[in-house]
Amino acid sequence: MDDRNKYEKAAGLDAPLDQALDRFAKLAKEDAKARPDTADEIIPEGQLDLVPFKKHDIRRVLHEDEWWYSVTDVIAALTGSERPRKYWADLKRQLSEKEGFYELSENIGQLPIPGADGKLYRSDVATTETLLRIIQSVPSPRAEPFKRWLAKVGYERIQEIQDPEIAIKRAILTYQIQGRTDDWIEKRIRSIVARKELTSEWKKRGVKEGQEYAMLTNVISENTFGMHTQRHKKYKGLAKAHNLRDHMTDLELILTMLGETSTKEIAQRRDARGYFQNYQAANTGGRIAGTARREIESQTGRPVVSKQNFLGSKKRQSDPTLLTSKPKRD
Predict the structure, then answer these.
(1) Domain assignment present for 170
(2) What's the rounded Cα separation, in Å, for the pair 304 and 78?
(3) Is 234 among the domain residues?
(4) Same domain, yes or no, for 287 and 308?
(5) Neighbours of 186 (CB within 10 A)
(6) Which of 264, 287, 288 is nearest to 199 (CA)?
(7) How do residues 262-299 score in pLDDT, each as one tens digit?
(8) For residue range 258-271, what is the model confidence (pLDDT) as tens digits?
(9) Which distant-in-sequence residues (6+ apart) come within 8 Å of 213 by Cβ?
(10) How many of the other CB atoms lie within 10 Å of CB of 218?
């Protein structure tokens, strides 16, 4: 479709991907020099991930810049038990009788991670250090291989902070494992680059990180999709911990990039300073993407904003009927 190609070009999708990744790496390294204690934005707080150990998938979630692993997944991988929750409950009772378990239990957290049905449940999680102590109490021939695996995947986080390109490559691999298409993956990676360029621009122009970034993002989203980001998440059936952009369709990603890239260009052209002037730029950038959305909808006869997400089966992910119900607008 000619219109779609036009919007892809405006969003920067016509530029070579390797050039976009070079820009991302440069900006990330500049941020790291300015704020060495801040992790790159590839893996945000609350990010959910699956990492394979032999034939088992270990769920983990990023919390306070550290990976926390599902304890029951680790137990299942180590023991092969079909009832890892019971095994873990029994092990905790045994450990509670031993001296020093109280200190260990203090380091076991509870964070929301997805179950088999895709819903989030608060589950026992532990960091690499705590897991290594738990493993000592599990009789298993897999204990030593698992320790080496755990040390490796734990170290990857440090590598990603030091070299943003590694984080990009790992993100691509994660999306491939999840069964995403190559075309979608490329758009998702480009959307990460576009977001990084926008937030770096905001930082230069005196916008405060955190709440002001979130408010400006909502301004772009409201004008682009007719709904703010939390409502967009709710419409897709996502929980608070989910990353909305990881569940966007190709068109949603293109329009998100268009809105954010337009906002960046407008802020530069106007030399916007502070929150209010950048609010005006975000409002204009979002309206540009919103106009594109309405034009696409008028040509296709269906809404761009979709209930589609990647929580269900592959059949559900590709079901075109999920694109037919029209969301309410604000």
Answers:
(1) no
(2) 45
(3) yes
(4) yes
(5) 18
(6) 264
(7) 999 999 999 999 999 999 999 999 999 999 999 999 99
(8) 999 999 999 999 99
(9) 199, 202, 207
(10) 18
